[in-house]
Design goal:
The protein is mainly alpha-helical and 51 residues long. It is 69% helix and 0% strand. The chain has a domain at 24-51. It contains one helix and no strands. The longest helix has 35 residues, at 3-37. The relative contact order is 0.09.
Length: 51
């Protein structure tokens, strides 16, 4: 694998990692906001278990 391909793949995986972290953070903030507004929202809407 040449240096240009390695650099491109490193950039793509870095962007993928950032996108995953940003998506998780936004889902976490959304779950907090929704629970603050509607206090009885089931946790399974956010993919979390009750325990």
């Amino acid at each position: 694998m040449n240096a240009q391909t390695r650099l491109r793949l490193t950039g793509e995986f870095s962007l993928l990692g950032f996108a995953l972290v940003a998506t998780e953070a936004m889902a976490w903030v959304l779950s907090i906001v929704v629970n603050a507004v509607y206090e009885s929202v089931p946790l399974f809407w956010f993919g979390r278990s009750a325990s």
